[in-house]
Specification:
Blueprint: H1 2-25, H2 34-52, H3 62-87, H4 97-124, H5 143-155, E1 182-190, E2 200-209, H6 214-228, E3 246-253, E4 260-262, E5 278-285, E6 290-291, E7 319-320
Parallel strand pairs: 1-5
Antiparallel strand pairs: 1-2, 3-4, 3-5, 6-7
Length: about 325
């Protein structure tokens, strides 16, 4: 009896500290509502409590019950990872701790619920053949999230690889948007800085001219977007909210979750993106603490990518000393 009490205390403490840590991590920017976190943890507890009550399956053998429990935890983990990805921008560069702490909280809640269900069979109905150690099957719950998060880290471009492009204060150059000179891409950007995730625009389909530089396209895009969205224009083009100078970085991927490559703002769009590519525009801080270095990017010849070193333009990369 003592081991199960100690284990329950550890699981409850883990759940409590994870939830408190989540709320502290969201002190400046609330991503998950407190009520929603409590409901989610409660649902996870009850679901795995019911799973623990399936002791009748012990007639088929404890090993089979353990496999069923592990599979259920894994499937719930897949749902959890999908839920975070589909409803929250958890893969964003600046977002890691809230999703991880929430995953830990749900795992502890599931483990505590599963152990409670097993305890009912073992001590209430004196069904001791059902091993209490099977609550460890809940450890499969965070595995899908950890795999997807690790994969996401592999796709990220280090900040020092981004191409810094200062937004000019001159009018946007003319570009040719004839139907035979454009491709369609999907743009992802913030109308304000990343401090305001509510201002994010994702998956906006836009025409990009093949014979214009990417910076010329982006200038025209911003100008056109602001004319059509007077109430929510793209702001903070040259400085952030505190007046600090910023630059722009652009990177693309073949699919939403595909490997990213940095784009050369001074390179021709037709040499860097293909029809249906996903392009993201991000603001980067600039200052005396940054220096330039040569770019390292993939090339494209024929069906392959071409890096900015082929465009003949000078590339500026920002990197902290």
């Amino acid at each position: 009896m003592i081991p199960i009490i100690i284990t329950s205390i550890i699981l409850f403490a883990g759940l409590l500290f994870s939830v408190i840590g989540l709320f502290i991590a969201q002190k400046e920017e609330q991503k998950f509502e407190r009520k929603g976190v409590f409901y989610y943890a409660l649902i996870s507890f009850l679901l795995f409590f019911l799973l623990g009550l399936l002791g009748l399956l012990n007639e088929e053998g404890p090993r089979r019950v353990l496999l069923i429990s592990q599979a259920t935890a894994g499937l719930f983990g897949i749902f959890h990872a999908w839920f975070l990805f589909a409803n929250y921008d958890w893969a964003d560069h600046a977002s890691f701790l809230p999703e991880t702490l929430l995953t830990a909280a749900i795992t502890f809640a599931a483990g505590l619920g599963f152990l409670s269900g097993l305890w009912v069979w073992a001590y209430v109905f004196e069904f001791y053949d059902y091993s209490l150690a099977q609550y460890k099957a809940a450890l499969w719950l965070p595995v899908p999230y950890l795999i997807l998060r690790t994969y996401d880290f592999m796709l990220q471009i280090p900040q020092r690889k981004f191409i810094a492009w200062p937004y000019p204060d001159t009018p946007a150059p003319r570009i040719n948007l004839d139907s035979d000179n454009v491709r369609y891409i999907y743009l992802d950007f913030f109308t304000r800085s990343e401090r305001y995730p509510a201002g994010r625009v994702a998956g906006l389909r836009s025409r990009i001219p093949l014979d214009a530089t990417f910076s010329a396209f982006f200038q025209n895009f911003v100008q056109d977007y602001n004319e059509k969205n007077v109430d929510y224009p793209i702001v903070n083009l040259r400085t952030d909210e505190d007046g600090n100078p910023i630059g722009w970085a652009f990177y693309a991927s073949r699919t939403k979750r595909g490997r990213k490559w940095a784009l050369d703002p001074n390179g021709h769009s037709g040499q860097q993106v293909q029809e249906g590519d996903f392009v993201q525009a991000r603001r980067l801080p600039l200052g005396e603490a940054f220096r330039s270095q040569p770019a390292e990017q993939p090339r494209k010849t024929g069906n392959k990518r071409q890096g900015p070193e082929d465009s003949g333009d000078e590339i500026i990369i920002i990197e902290k000393k």
